[in-house]
Structures are given as structure tokens and as C-alpha cells.
Amino acid sequence: MLWLTIGVLLVVLVLYFIAESARKTTLTMLKGANAVRELPFPVGDGFVAAYRQADAWAVEHGYHRREIVHFSLVSEEDLVRTHGHADPDGSPWWVKSAFWWHPEKRCVYSITEAEGKVFHDFDTAFGREPGRPEYELTTSNHPDGAVVPRPPRFPAQVFPGKGAGELEALHEKASHWIREQTGLEPLEPGDTLAHVRRHLRVHAEHTLAHPLWHLRFYLWHLSKGRRLNRPVRELYQGRIPGESHKA
């Protein structure tokens, strides 16, 4: 009986720390929506190497360079308390992203360094009026991109281990399907900093809107495997969520 009690307490403590970590990260995302900063050039050995490789691929495939930004996954107060400084260079809690834009495809390609790893994303916004996206599609190779529920008009597909070329092809296929489903056309992305801030805010607010979201976080994490390596058409069972805009 004693060992059973100890086991239950350990499980409760683990779940508490997972939930607390999720709570802090999500709340920081809301703050981060106002703390995204532009970098004049890539910093950090790992990110610089990844940037050069991604830039060569992007330019070769018709993408144009855009901004490089960073923001923190935890508060700067916590960074100072745990690391003695809030310097983004060398800190695993600072996220760095670089962006490229394809004018014909109206697609944004980005790389993101988080916790020492680099991930690739393709994003396309769809709508009728410039600056007013109604759907935003993301194709990524970041496994944690499939953890928390997505806002209805922000469909995503996650393929861990895929490179930029494979992800781009999967993204174009999903983009074609969304255009068929909604009747909407790809939009120009507008300001990069505003784009990042909007994504941080919308996703954090959607997570916080779920009842007991911080307690459910570990269940979402454990079940993320069901959402990996599946195209949006399969994930949404042939119909994109939200009211159709097709005329």
C-alpha cells in the first residue's frame, strides 16, 4: 500500500510539473507576441550553419530573403534568475527564426532554432482581401507542432524528419486542397514581425480557451503521434474545419 501511494504521488508530481511547464510556456507565448525582435544577422554557431544551408536551398528554389527574428520561451526574469543573464546568444530558451518568401507561390519558408534543434516550416495564408487571412496552412517537421489543438482556421500537417524539398511538395499539395475547399487564394504575408506575433497570440489564446487546458496538456502530448505524418486532408477527414467560404 505504501509503494502504491508513493507511486501515485510520483505520477501526480510528474503531471504537475508537465502542466506547470505548459502553463508558463503558453503564458510566455502571449507575452512573446509583444516581445518579438528583429535580428540584423543570424547569431549562434548552430543557427548560422543552419541559416547558410537553408538560404542556399531557398535562393536556388526562387525564395527571397526576409527578416530574422527571435523571442524567448520563458520570461526574461526567469532567464536572469536561472542563467544570470537574458542574452539570446547561447541560451536554449531563445527561439530564432529566419524567413524567406516565394512571390509566385505566395509561400513563406522559415527555419526555427529551438532548444538546440533546427526545424523547417512552410506557411501560406488564404483569403479574399490583402492583409485579411481567413485560413493559414502550416507544414512543418517539428514534432511538437502536433501537441496542442490547432485553431480551426490554422490547419497544420507535421512530418518529422522530412527535409525542405519534401516539405515544400507536401505543402503545395495541401495548399491546392485548401484552395479547392474554400475558394480562397494565397495572400502575400505582409510584415514578418506582425505575422510571428499574430501566430504566437492566436495559438496561445486557443490553448488557454480549453477547459483545464494545463491538466490536459500531458494527454495532448501523449496522443500527438496520431497527428504526425498525416496530410491535412486526412487529418480533417476531407473537409477543412470552419464554415466553407467557397462561392
Radius of gyration: 19 Å
- How would you sum up the global shape? globular
Q: Considering DSSP H and I runs of 4 or more, what fraction of the residues is helical?
A: 40-55%
Structural class: alpha+beta
% residues in beta strands: 15-25%
Number of helices: 7
Distance between the termini: 64 Å
**Total of domains:** 1
Largest sheet: 8 strands, mixed
Q: Which whole number gives the mean pLDDT?
A: 77
Strand tally is 8
Order of helices and strands: HEHEHEEEEEHEHHH
Protein name: DUF664 domain-containing protein
Organism: Oceanithermus desulfurans
What labels describe this entry?
about 250 residues, disordered C terminus, alpha+beta, DUF664 domain-containing protein, 8 strands, about 45% helix, 7 helices
Nutshell version of this structure?
With 247 residues, the chain is of the alpha+beta class. The protein is 43% helix and 21% strand.
